[in-house]
Amino acid sequence: MKNAAKLLLCAVLAACVLCSCSVNVNVNPTETTDAVTQTTTEKTTENKTGEPVQQQTETASETATEKQTVSKADTDKKLKIVLDPGHDSTAHTRNHPGLGVNEQDLNFKIARACYRKLKQYDCIDVYITRKNGDCPNSDKKYSDDKAHGDACIYARTDFAEKKNADIFVSFHCNSSTGKLGAKANGAEVYVTKHSKLRVESELLGKLVLEHITSALDLKSRGLKTRVKPEKVTYDDGTPKDYYYLLSNNIDNNRPAIIIEHAYMDNAHDNKILRDDESLKKLGEADADAIIDCYGLNL
Predict the structure, then answer these.
(1) What residue spans define the domains of the chain?
(2) Which pLDDT value is given to residue 131?
């Protein structure tokens, strides 16, 4: 990439709203590839209410760098991170008895391992949207299961807003057919196309994939984006992200990513997901990515 583009990349990273955890700014893009967009229909995921839908996804442009760090350099403010174990055991369940796993339990174990590692860092405040199997707002009553499920999703981003979080990371596991033996496998991360927050989201997502694939025998499926079919846009004119967990955070100027760690219905990935030690490694890999991205020091 030309020098002007490199300078623009540095300027975008340096302009993020930042905190005291990152002492040094280290943004040195030594090797950058031009954006490449690919379309695939292999992935089946979930809509806002969690129902499986066949979709088209795009591979986000990835910036390959020797070392990049986002510095949040406001000495009066700790970096606030919200970790979101997707789904729950009450209103938004994802039980898969045929696969030997329940997604909400996998998500929670991975997020908890990430939480415990990040809690070692005094220079940040780390929060988790649920501390057990319950929906984040399980104390409230709703007219039907759908309303309850929707409200549980809204409660997650509301939690981040109340905590005035700087970053939102949602933990999930994937499925393509729902039956063991699926070909799709590996980890992928959903990021935003929003012009102001895209670079930070992509950098964090890229580091997540690097750490996951280094820690476990999982392949990287790359960064993904999906936008709303209604053609609505953000304030910068870019298409709004399909997933509420992303779009609501972006609307509130908060970087957010959704990590799909592995495929529950792929035999190879399923074996990894059924092992608690592997789930711990996944969570710690996510934590290491956050630590690297924001230059955290003990």
Answers:
(1) 3-293
(2) 86
Query: What whole-number distance in Å separates Cα of residue 28 and Cα of residue 48?
Result: 37
CB 92 within 8 A of CB 149: yes
Tell me the sheet residues that pair with 53: 45
The edge-to-edge listing of strands for the beta sheet with 167-174 is 39-40, 57-59, 220-225, 187-190, 256-263, 167-174, 79-85, 124-128
3-state secondary structure of 116: helix
- CA distances to 1, 4, 123, 152, 183 from 43, rounded to whole Å, are 31, 36, 38, 24, 11
C-alpha to C-alpha distance for 291 and 251, rounded to whole angstroms: 25
Residue 277: which residues within 8 A CB-CB, separation 6 or more?
A: none
For the chain, the average pLDDT equals 78
Total length of the chain: 298
Long-range contacts of 99-103 (CB under 8 A, 24+ apart): 99/175, 99/178, 99/180, 99/264, 99/265, 99/270, 100/270, 100/274, 101/173, 101/264, 101/270, 101/273, 101/274, 103/172, 103/173, 103/175, 103/264
**Cα 20 from Cα 77, distance rounded (Å):** 6
**Residues 67-89 pLDDT 10s:** 566 655 554 589 999 999 987 65
Q: Two tokens at 169? A: 């990371």
According to CATH, the topology of domain 3-293 is Aminopeptidase (3.40.630)
